[in-house]
Design a protein that fits this description.
Rossmann fold; five-stranded parallel β-sheet; two-stranded antiparallel ribbon; about 15% strand
């Protein structure tokens, strides 16, 4: 497979290195650190999938739409789940349309079996699922989301597909990508993904951001929220993450909480408002009870100054 002359990915990728890619991602509202910018740049330059792992809500899945905007490419998403198999991810035949065509052909007097079979199993009746869509669409960004929810067999299938980006349809032959899609895989680490699949990919672990970066993300995603409220929300979430919670809040919950408080007309936080709106940031009763036992006055005072 021939690379574009500029060594890029053929999808309008940046030529100036990780720094330019980082700047262009941040123009879309997706803020990245240096490590992630380098991982993304190498994924584009080397045509390697990027495996993103970390807690839920830290921005793994949001990377793919941001890359799609930077590359001016369509985003194709495959949501993994327990029991997903190749046919659900790759392609299927449109049986209702095939049946209608068969009835119409019989009504028109077409009875030759070979002709009917060739017509029924032609490209017009093939339903492309996300993986085949990504192979056939250039350029494209493919998000394989929560791959840890699938099983070993599906992982093995993905490994084969990501090795050569070809799809074999017995009735039609082998379909091959003219250039590889940009692939982002995410895992919440509900189980360990096999090393064979990880070895095929570049890897990046998503940590919860520090205060300054998380505040910048909140201000970027919810610019209407006051600076004081954004700082207080971020500080409280950072404090909550230090507790022994069943599900520590991610950046997504921080953004949601800031939006909810703004919708209530709040311009700053106090303890009463924190406890009244905990459902926007904590999703387990035990976590909410733990939060209500905390003295957040010092945190609020420090960030409300």
């Amino acid at each position: 497979m021939t690379r574009p002359a500029n060594g890029g990915n053929g999808a309008g990728g940046p030529e100036g290195g990780p720094g330019e890619l980082r700047a262009r991602l941040e123009e879309t509202g997706y803020l990245v650190d240096e490590g992630l910018a380098i991982a993304c740049f190498l994924a584009l330059r080397l045509h390697r999938p990027l495996f993103c792992e970390g807690d839920a809500g830290v921005g793994k899945s949001a990377l793919a739409p941001a890359l799609a905007k930077v590359l001016h490419a369509p985003l194709i998403r495959l949501q993994c789940y327990e029991g997903i198999d190749a046919s659900q991810a790759l392609y299927d035949w449109d049986f209702p349309r095939q049946l209608l065509h068969l009835r119409a052909a019989e009504a028109a007097g077409v009875t030759e079996p070979d002709r009917l079979e060739s017509e029924l199993y032609s490209r017009r009746f093939l339903v492309a699922r996300p993986l085949l869509q990504a192979v056939e669409t250039q350029p494209s960004v493919l998000l394989i989301d929560e791959v840890d929810r699938s099983d070993d067999e599906f992982e093995a299938f993905l490994l084969e597909l990501l090795s050569d980006y070809t799809v074999t349809v017995p009735e039609l032959g082998t379909l091959r990508a003219q250039s590889p899609p940009v692939v982002v895989l995410t895992s919440n680490r509900t189980r360990e993904v096999h090393d064979a699949l990880k070895r095929r990919c570049l890897y990046h672990w998503f940590d919860h951001p520090d205060f300054d970066r998380e505040l910048a993300i909140v201000r970027s995603r919810q610019p209407q929220v006051t600076a004081r409220l954004a700082a207080q929300v971020t500080a409280v979430v950072q404090q909550l993450r230090t507790q022994q919670l069943l599900k520590p809040p991610g950046v997504a919950e921080t953004i949601d909480w800031a939006e909810a408080l703004d919708a209530l007309g709040a311009t700053e936080l106090d303890a009463e408002l924190v406890f009244a709106t905990l459902g926007s940031v904590l999703k387990y009763r035990e976590d909410a009870e733990r939060a209500r036992s905390l003295d957040l006055s010092a945190v609020l005072a420090a960030r409300g100054a």
